Amino acid sequence: CMMAERLAMYIDTSKCMAAGVCQVACKQWNDNRGYIPGERETVITGTYENPLSLDPQTWTRIRFVEYDDGQRFQWLFFKEGCMHCGEAVCVDVCPTGALKYGPQGIITFERELCNGCGSCGQFCPYGVPQLEVLDALSGEAKSSKCFFCQDRTTNGLKPACVKTCPAGALDWGDRNEMVAKADARVQELKSERGFPGANAYGKTQLGGLGRIYVLTAPAEAYGLAADPKYPVTSTVWQKILQPVGQIAFGATVVGAIAAFLAARRNVHMEEVE
To answer: Rounded to two decimals, what is the model's pTM?
Structure first.
């Protein structure tokens, strides 16, 4: 999908201190659980990462990776969250229009339209959207993901995480400018900082991402696919799921659909392929 103007988030992993302030700011601004001390018991898991993964109340988090290429050891810190792809499969497979290409390239999310089918998370090449089951009996559920604080960014403000980063690792603005900034930083890291493997990620992947990363190691070291593919099974699935999402027959059909959706949430589409 081509937008006349796209904004993007710039993420310099070489400056990230893994302070977690971005995680807290995201939760606080979006009123998600888990940022108030004592609100949720801290679980010791034997790892620096907390939480261990994205979840319905955690839309961004810092992933810790130990990396040694034989020349030097590095702690790699990677800010996870929705990539806001230029070619977003989540938008294409959403049967209710809850996910859309919004202003300035943001993949917006309208929670009230979500039917909880889970397709967005199953087809996302990055596994970002998270499903929260609200009622196990009825199968009611809702997805969630980062939407670049669209209430802020559509009013000329920066996302909450960018606003609060103490290390200056984050920036927000015109996508072309963020790409140029990343390219310049990569050259600096290569020539002056001793990171010959530095590279910019997000410039071309999946139609160009809304997150432009400066990496100091290969993408694969961060758990990223260097060249992620648009899932081919999504085209077939659209022909099955989207008509179902538009059906509004009687209670029997609605119940059958709910049971069907609840069951298929456990399907991993990469295994289907």
So the answer is: 0.84
Q: How many Å apart are CA 52 and CA 62, to the nearest integer?
A: 9
Name which of 200, 205, 177 is nearest 11 in CA terms.
200
Instruction: Say what the pLDDT of residue 248 is.
Output: 42
Q: Which residue has the tokens 């530095």?
A: 198
51-63, pLDDT tens digit by residue? Answer: 889 999 999 999 9
Q: Are 109 and 145 in contact (CB under 8 A)?
A: yes
Rounded Cα distance, 241 and 233, in Å: 12
Residues 38 and 192: beta-carbon distance below 8 Å = no
**51 alpha-carbon distance from chain centroid:** 15
pLDDT at 68: 92
Name the band, by pLDDT with cuts 50, 70 and 90, for residue 33.
confident
β-pair partners for 143: 131
d(CA 84, CA 126): 11
Torsion angle, alpha carbons of 15, 18, 21, 24, to 10:
140
Strands 99-101 and 130-135: unpaired
The closest alpha carbon to 34, from 241, 25, 82, 45, belongs to 25
pLDDT reading at 206 higher than 60: yes
pLDDT band at 138 (very low <50, low <70, confident <90, very high): confident
d(CA 86, CA 52): 28
Nearest to 269 by CA among 146, 145, 118, 130: 118
